[in-house]
Amino acid sequence: MASLQDIGVSAGINSLTAFIFLMVFAVLRLQPVNDRIYFPKWYLKGIRASPVSSGSLKKIVNLDPKMYLRFWNWMPAALRMPEPELIDHAGLDSAVYIRIYLLGLKIFVPITALAFVVLVPVNWTNNTLEELKDVTFSDLDKLSISNIPDGSSRFWVHIGMIYIFSFWTMYKLYQEYKIIATMRLHFLASESRRPDQYTVLVKNVPADPDESVSAHVDHFFVVNHPDHYLTHQVVYNANRLATLVENKKSLHNWLTYYQNRYERNPLEKPTIKTGFWGLWGQRVDAISYYATEISKLSEEEDAEREKVMSDPKAIVPAAFVSFKSRWGAAVCAQTQQTSNPTVWLTEWAPEPRDVYWRNLAIPYVELNVRRLLMAVALFFLVFFFMIPITIVQSIANLEGIEKVLPFLKPVIEAKIIKSFIQGFLPGIALKIFLILLPTLLMIMSKIEGFASLSSLERRSASKYHKFILVNVFLGSIVAGTALQQIHEFLNQSATEIPKIVGVSIPMKATFFISYIMVDGWAGIAGEILRLVPFVMFHIKNTFLVKTEKDREEAMDPGSLTFAISEPRIQLYFLLGLVYAPVSPILLPFIVVFFAFAYLVFRHQVINVYDQKYESGASFWPDVHSRIMIGLVISQLLLLGLLSTKEAGKTTPFLIVLPLLTIWFHLFCKGRFESAFVKFPLQDAMIKDTLEKAREPDLNLKAFLEDAYIHPIFKGGVYEKPIMDEESYPIIVATKRNSRVGSKVGSSEDSPQAFLG
């Protein structure tokens, strides 16, 4: 059980680590040689150029002493940019993401102040824990609800506080939801013209024996959307071709590396073994080998490209359909096309850079099977992963280490070692254990078949949130507490076990304090240092870069990894809401996290990250829902705790609170969520009218014709299967061998006036 000294040691270690990271960053960012690492966004925008100075040393090291005296200037600079300018600079997704940290401060700063003024004195002025002989505790636990005797009237204070905390949280959430919904609608209304505003993704196009997919799509929309349909682009299954292109790019990098190496040392020709990873096989000339492999791959690529373009089977039953107006696209995207709800499925098209092309080729039936299998896999992953997490946490304490490695007992009983293990090791052990999890969850989301990067990230974030909720939070409390109090569990009667659990749950706050400092202090400071991109850039710059274009490609600006970072933020919301009425000592650590993360990520968004897509903050309803889940959990947990503290007279007053919270969530969902999933027809008509007035001669077809071509085909010779609406007669000709009145698509579609 971590003591105040243990927490102090952990705080010192993590604070020192964060300070060192910040100092190293402050110095490295001033060096010209690192300029593309710490300011890549400005290079991508074309605003910043490589530092030019006389002398080779000045190109590498900043020799101006005045700059080092102002190395902390990045902090006020990160806060200086106004939010409207930030939206123009980085997009609405980035601006709203940063507001999540700001929301955490708005919620928890007042809660922390109130909890320390009211709850801490109420909890501290008791001696209940000292009277319990069979429970291990520390001085920090005296600040928690565990230190209040059973049946005490002081529990009314905690009930009053949970009502205040809940209403304050709901009030700030309502305000934030309203602000962000307004920001989104304003962003969509003021945004410059984009292809996705006019385009709908159509999936599960039914097969037709008489027509190709392209002709079938064209006829369907000419008939059913005659006044608004403009053009379409069928989707090719170019997954294998994309793989070949990626492999060829990798081989080019190796060829460049060995050519540069040979140019630096012409006396020694580089060689390579042809076996797996170069570990065995015949040793050959590296430059010739990679040149030959690239030539072979180029031939294979050309053959595959020709196959994709000429094989009708390479066209999948999906298409990007564009309309003459935003209004026409909105009507199509938000309505059912036929009486059969399983065909001609329409949804708003992702913006071109947001499309995840590999998943567009997955058939509709296969999609449902994949998602079912991944749901089952997630269930087993979430619940069976609790076993290794429990083992790690049980070992990452003094008792666990002494049992596994008894010969280390004299060493770990030393005062400073003991404080390090109790205060620091559990948090870092859990952090390391979770490193590979987000990658696994993203792979599962890709298998599920979502068609955009934004939906993949939101889906992965949902999985990660479930995992954190069950394993990191509930698993740490239930399994960790049971293991720490195992002796009491075995020797007490069954009627006493709930009481021991009720007393012990608040004691787990010390573990979460340790985790917050590791992940939320040192971890966030490590984010701004960008150690991995730093190393990778200099390796590429040394071995692969020949031109300025190569140097730009060597940059790795990264992006806001929503699938990883948003569920992590939700853990802090959950911990803050749960422990505010139970053990307020945890709250200051959470406030420090939100303040520090807000500063760091604002800097990163302004100077570093280059977002892969722009979804117009479509993720916000998920953020709101998860905070509401944390709020309900906090209320139910306090209700359960009070039920073990013989406070039966007070618990009925808590039952209504979760019901009020759920009602509030449904109210917000009905009031605001439609702004995040639909585009108002009124707004679409306004934008279309203004556009026609300002640009009466706009050639929308030319603007849209290349937007949704697979990136593999761009830059090459590509015959786009798009149609000009002006070439169609009023009665559409078709090659079908069907009679007048035949049905479009399938036997379940409504009759259309087609002439055979």
UniProtKB/TrEMBL annotation:
Keyword Oxidoreductase tagged: no
Molecular function per GO: calcium-activated cation channel activity
Domain (CSC1/OSCA1-like cytosolic) ranges: 197-359
Entry GO CC: plasma membrane
Topological category with respect to the lipid bilayer: Multi-pass membrane protein
Keyword Ion transport: yes
Alphabetic keyword roster: Calcium, Ion channel, Ion transport, Membrane, Transmembrane, Transmembrane helix, Transport
Residue ranges annotated for the CSC1/OSCA1-like 7TM region domain, each copy included: 370-642
Family as reported in the entry's similarity comment: Belongs to the CSC1 (TC 1.A.17) family.
Protein name, per record: CSC1-like protein At4g02900
Source organism (scientific name): Daucus carota subsp. sativus (Carrot)
